[in-house]
Amino acid sequence: MAQFGFENDIHSILKLDMPIINAPKARWQRKASSSTISAPTALTPGKSAKASLSLSKTPNKTPGKNKKPTPSKMGGDRFIPTRNGKQMDVASFLLTKENEPMDINNPAATFESQKAWSLSLNGYNVEEAKILHLGGKPLHAREGYQINLKVPYSQVTNPASVKKTRYISSTPNIILDVPDLRNDFYLNLFDWSSRNVLAVALHNSVYLWDAEQGGVTPLMNLELEQNYICSLSWAKEGSCLAIGTSDCKVELWDVDNEKHLRSMISHTARVGSLSWNNHILSSGSRSGHIHHHDVRVADHHISTLTGHSQEVCGLQWSPDGRYLASGGNDNLVCIWPRIQEGSFGNSSQLVRCFNDHQGAVKALAWCPWQLNILASGGGTKDRHIRVWNVNSGSCISSLDTKSQISSLVFAPNYKELVSAHGSPLNNVVIWKYPSFAKVAELNGHEDRVLNLTLSPDCSTVASVAGDETLRLWNCFEAEKMVKTTHSVIHPSIR
C-alpha cells in the first residue's frame, strides 16, 4: 500500500490540468530538431562541407555591427538570468501549479514538500527556477538623483544638493566706541583696507584699528582745531591712505611708516568724497566739482568734472576702472568715462546722467559680478534703492525702503546687497539681489547709520553711526553659525 501511495503522490505533483501554451519544447523534440539541422545536405558546387556545417551552427553573437555578445555567465545580466532547459521546464510547471489551492492548515509543509520533490527529481531548489530573479550589485543612480521612494538604486548624496542652513546673528561681534565722530550725512568717515586695517576719522584726527591684532594707532591730526576730516579712502594695496579735509586739501599718508607724503590743493570747498583708480585719485567737493589727481607727478590736478550743481557726497570707481559714478546733493547720479592717458583740462562729457531720485544721492555701489550694474540710494525725500544698467541707461529695478539711505555695499559671497539707513529705521538691512527679498535686519544703532564698508574677505560688514559707535556684523560666513553668547568687545578708538 505504501508503494501505491508513493506513486499517487508522484502523479498528483506532475499532473497538468490544462495544456501549457508557449511552453518550451521537450528534450526529445529539441534533439530531433537539432539532428535534422545537422543532417547531411547537398553541397553547393564550389563550397566545402566544412563551410556548410559552420552555417548550421547558431551564431554566438547578436547580428549587427559593434554589438556585444549576450553574457553567458550566471549573473552577467541583472534582470535576465541564464538558465538551462531543466529550469525552464520546472518554471513552466510551477506556473501551472500557482493557481492550485494550497493546504490552508499547513502552507509551510506544502512548500517544503515541493522543495523536496524538486531536489529529488531535478537536483536543484524550486527557487532557482523562478522566471525573474534579481542578482548582482545594485546600480548607482546618476549624481544628484534624490527620491524618497524605495528604488533599486544606491543613492549617493551629492554635497552640492545639501541645503545649508544660514544663521545671521542680530548681535554685532564687536562694538567700538568712536567719540567725536562727526554726525554729518554728506561725509565718508571710515574705510577698510585690503590689509585688514580700519581707518576712522574722529573730528580732526585719524585712527587706525588692526582687525587681526585689535590694536589702535593714531595716524595724524590737523593743525587747526576748527578744521575736521571729511573723507577717507585706502589705495588698492592698502599702504597709502587718502584724507580729504574741510580746508580744501587732499592729503596722502604712508601708513606703514606713519609718514605724510604730500598735500594736494585744488578744491575751493571741503572734500567730502574720495575714490581710487590705480594711480588716479578722484575727489568730490562741496562746490560740485570732481577733480582727478595723478599722484605720481608733481602737477597732480589733471582734470575737472563739472556735472553737479551742489555738493558731491558719493564717489565710486567701477571694479574694472571703466566708469566713475558720482552722486550729489542735487539728486543726480552721473556716470563719467575713465581718464585717457595724457589728457588734461576741464571736461563735462557725461556717459549717463540719472535724475530719478528725489533726494541727495550719497549711497553708490558697483556690482562686483555684473560690472555694468550700479546701485544708488536716495536721501530722506527719496528713500529708494535704484539699480541701473549703465550700458543701456535703463533703471532695472526700484525699491522703496521707507527710510533714508546713507550707504550701499554688495556682498559677493551670497550675491546680496547691504543698505545703511538713517531716520526712521537707523539700521542695516541685507537684501537678496536681484529679487530684493529681505534677508535680515541688523538693529542696535541708536542714531542714523552714516557709512558701511566690507572686510577684505567679504565676510563682515562694518557700520558707523551718529551714536558714536562702530559695529562689526559677521553676516556672510560660509558655514552655519551656532547661536551662542557673544563676547562683545567694547573698546574705544582714541
From TrEMBL:
The keyword Repeat applies. The lineage of its organism: Eukaryota, Metazoa, Chordata, Craniata, Vertebrata. WD repeats lie at residues 222-263, 305-336, 442-474. Gene3D superfamilies: YVTN repeat-like/Quinoprotein amine dehydrogenase (2.130.10.10). Pfam families: WD40_CDC20-Fz. Belongs to the WD repeat CDC20/Fizzy family. GO terms for biological process: anaphase-promoting complex-dependent catabolic process; cell division; positive regulation of anaphase-promoting complex-dependent catabolic process. Residues 47-63 have a biased composition (Low complexity). Residues 31-41 have a biased composition (Polar residues). Residues 176-473 form the CDC20/Fizzy WD40 domain. This is Cell division cycle protein 20 homolog. One of its GO terms (molecular function) is anaphase-promoting complex binding. InterPro entries: Cdc20/Fizzy, Quinoprotein_ADH-like_sf, WD40/YVTN_repeat-like_dom_sf, WD40_CDC20-Fz, WD40_repeat_CS, WD40_rpt. Keywords: Cell cycle, Cell division, Repeat, WD repeat. GO terms for cellular component: anaphase-promoting complex. Residues 31-82 are annotated as: Disordered.
